[in-house]
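Hey, quick one: can you model this chain's 3D structure?
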Amino acid sequence: MLGKFFQKPTGEDANRVPPGQHLASGFPVLTYGETPQVNTDKWEFRVWGLAVPKTFTWEDFMVLPQSDFTADFHCVTRWSKLDVKWTGIKVTDFMQAIEVEPQAKYVMEHCYGGYTTNISIDDLFREENFFAWKLFGEPLSAEHGGPMRLVVPHLYAWKSAKWINGLEFLASEELGFWECNGYHRRGEPWAEERYSY
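Sure thing. Here's the predicted structure for all 197 residues.
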């Protein structure tokens, strides 16, 4: 597989790729279970837990400030893709539309299909994180997490939950799907936080 689909980073790219990673020539798709098919006219996004409960429609998200993002993408399965171009809504802009209680320290990301992953508020509320609905100028396909996914570039890609449809704010950490199945609680690529053992 190495050489045809993946290559070792060289030159300037070598400084942008975390240890143990190879560059992908395409954009691999890795999914556990079936791929949810959700139309934007039926898509909803909920906020609850230690926050004022609120439900957003697709139209509600589309009137929020839109931004273009270029970010590197690192998968725990040891591939990276550099300079991925997205369009979406900054998490920090979205936060202006909700009210979170001060005792909230963690978040559970919820998704269509039942997937969950945990993240700390400190890791989520960063300027470079965003909700993506376009990839390379095209609406995000279902296989890549469409109609919308969260993108958290500084953590491994399983924290960038596909098919996202809600944030549950928590006082203490609870583990999501992959974290309960042996993945690291945080998943920082440069520290190779791949697994919990």
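One thing worth noting: The mean pLDDT is 93.
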